[in-house]
Amino acid sequence: MRSATSVATCETTTAPLIVAARTQLASRVADYLQIVKPRISVMVLITVAAGFGLASGEGWQLAKLLHAMLGIALVATASSAFNQALERESDGFMRRTKNRPLPSGRLSTTEVVLFGLGTGVCGAIWLAAFVNPVTSMLTALTLALYVGAYTPLKRRTSFGVVIGAIPGAMPPVLGWTAAGAPLDLSAFSLFAILFLWQFPHFLAIAWIYRDEYARAGLKMLPAGGTARYLTGILAVGYALALVPLSLCPAATGMAGNVYLFVALVLSVAYLVAASRFALQESLRSARVLLWTSLLYLPALLVVLVWDHFRLLS
Predict the structure, then answer these.
(1) Do 171 and 227 fall into the same domain?
(2) How would DSSP label each residue in 120-132?
(3) Are 192 and 177 found together in one domain?
(4) Is pTM beyond 0.85 here?
(5) Is 258 buried (19+), middle (13-18) or exposed (0-12) by CB count in 10 A?
């Protein structure tokens, strides 16, 4: 009887501890997932895969692609970790970021920096060992530019958005070099498309959250957001420049007429959304531009890759 009673007492005592430990573990995993930013990482990996497929043609190797995606994902995680460590104070001033693990105090800066160092070093080594040194170095350079230039510049000048667009346009180029292809006009056209695509996208976000960015001391809008219509005019300018540039893959022989037609339709639709935002500068028009940008890029890349392989078959 005493033994049975002791066992029951022990189970009653330890059960809540086990539940609490599991809850704490789940909470920690969720916090680190917020550091990783899975949705952004998925978009990065989609563009990496597109660049890899376009550079490989019919001779693409699945194992090498998976190695490249793993290594780049690790370095992208490091970029996000360092970025959030540097912006922990400003994140606390913005409603959409104040509940992140760092500003809320659920994770310490040391934990996040060590996590970033671990994933960054492992990712760079993985790429050098299983993909190639060129991709490893370019990925490390992308991280350095994002964390070392773009992140601190956001507090000083809106020109930081231009600098930030450079690492933002690198993923398809990293996929391209991972396939072992030389950097040529086709690779540059992929870089240029992503470079220009980002500006209407980020300008829409910056306009929607302009008050929060201003409160956090981040200079995301041109002229500090004081020049009426300037944000919209710039969005139109970048979207307009994207129209001919989006057609370059067809001009270089990377894709055919199907891509040419779809790219033209998508780019004109993007331009129309930017123009409506420029004319109205309303919350609705900014959100329409943002959603158009989110649909534009994956649709363009899917058609580009499909048409590329259609020509090869």
Answers:
(1) no
(2) HHHHHHHHHHHT-
(3) no
(4) yes
(5) middle
- Does a structural domain hold residue 5? no
Q: Could you tell me if 38 and 168 lie in one domain? A: yes
Q: State the 10-residue block means of pLDDT for the chain, 313 residues long.
A: 55 62 74 88 94 87 95 96 90 81 86 94 98 97 94 85 94 96 94 97 92 83 66 95 97 94 98 96 95 97 95 85
Q: Helices marked H in the chain — which ranges?
A: 2-36, 38-56, 62-86, 88-91, 109-130, 133-145, 151-153, 160-168, 171-178, 185-208, 210-216, 230-246, 248-251, 257-280, 283-312
Q: Which residues fall within 8 angstroms of residue 237, CB to CB, at 6 or more apart?
A: none
Token pair listed for 65? 């692609």
Distance CA 120, CA 75 (A): 4
Taking a C-beta distance cutoff of 8 angstroms, is the pair 300, 246 a contact? Answer: yes
pLDDT tens for residues 124-168? Answer: 999 999 999 999 999 999 999 999 999 888 888 888 889 999 999
The three-state (H, E, C) secondary structure of 71-108, written as one string: HHHHHHHHHHHHHHHHCHHHHCCCCCCCCCCCCCCCCC
Residues 59, 130, single domain; the answer is: yes
Q: Which of 116, 150, 182 is the last residue of a domain?
A: 182
Domain that holds residue 139: 14-182
| pLDDT tens digits along 271-283 | 999 999 999 889 9
* CATH code (residue 49): 1.10.357.140
Rounded Cα–Cα distance for residues 154 and 89 (Å): 13
Confidence at residue 78, expressed as pLDDT on a 0 to 100 scale: 96
